[in-house]
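The authors assume throughout that readers already know how a fold can be written as discrete tokens. A single example would do more here than another paragraph of explanation. An entry of this sort, consisting of the sequence and the corresponding backbone structure tokens, reads as follows:
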Amino acid sequence: MKVLTINAGSSSLKYTLFRMDTEELMASGQVERIGLTEPRLSYKPHGGTKTEETIDIKGHTDALKTICAKLIDPKVGVLKAFSEVKAIGHRVVHGGEKITRPVIVDQSVKRIIADCFSLAPLHNPPNLAGIEACEQIFPGVPNVAVFDTAYHQTMRPEAYLYAVPYELYEKHGVRRYGFHGTSHNYVAESTAQFLDRPLDSLKLITCHLGNGCSMAAIENGKVVDTTMGMTPLEGLVMGTRSGDIDPAVVLRLVGEMGMTPAEVDTFLNKKCGLLGLSGGSSDMREIISLAGGGNERAELALKSFVRRVVKYIGSYLALMNGADAIVFTGGIGEYSVPVRERVISQLSNLGVTLDKEANAKLMGKPGIFSTPTSKVKAIVMPTNEELMIGRQTRDLLKAHNLI
């Protein structure tokens, strides 16, 4: 069974093709700059050479047509015909409270995605556009939506409600939803397999650290807390997002600096975080390099990033009364040896002890980098959101006898 996964952004469309009976990656790539000048397509068949080219497209439907043409290209394609694709799995950012698991897309699901436009204005509209493009090009092929927010819907009200009048939740959906759910789900399941233990017997703290960052406290297979909130802005220090901030800062930005709400939104999401603190970069690799060269602002940004992660780990250890493992994933979590060392080195009083030699060897592959005597294991576990979407698409359709 071949499953195509789609992650549609406002100006991009990432795609992956899997042979799901063996979970083999067949091809992957993306189209960038959709709706802008000089859109570009990248394509890489598994085991082959990655190619990039400028293409002439106007929207997501055109982008998908170009991708499909590449997949069946006689020279570099991996399919003989579109009909080999039996299902399409879509990443959708926000499903609100109405969707708590992967779902087969129908008109009611599309209405829910549209109803959440106000909660995820940068993500849900292109997510829906990607679904509708697939409906045009693959008529009759089932589409499955996998929501970033769904995995976190096991949180209890005391975890997801803000201390504001209850009517704001009832009438306007003001609450914590959480994001990166597909990644946290994949990493939790993979960690359980790695440790050879049932997921429902574990307490895990999963740390998805990349340009966007979030953490989750997962107890017995269910999320009990997560760092992102009603939007992906809350929580950790990120590449360009502020993370946790006093709401009065927003009032000052509007009242004293004259910013509009739209300008505040752009400011907190695009100009803060590592970029704002360092004054020059949102890339952790560059931050570490600059800090190593004596740049004080870069060192400040690095310390702030690490401190926020440590702070949340400590709170989650308290919340769950301990943990079996702290799991690092994402671009920073999987590849940044210095960040992992700084984080774990500050947790020794909580029974977490670092194995520096093991940490130095873990670059994008699973492994334990805590000492054998550490009360809590520190683990690197690479994420694979696309494969998780493929799995959930396959499993859902099998459950409905559609494949």
Observations:
- The two ends are 8 Å apart (CA to CA).
- The chain is about 40% helix and 20% strand.
- The first strand starts at residue 2 and ends at 8.
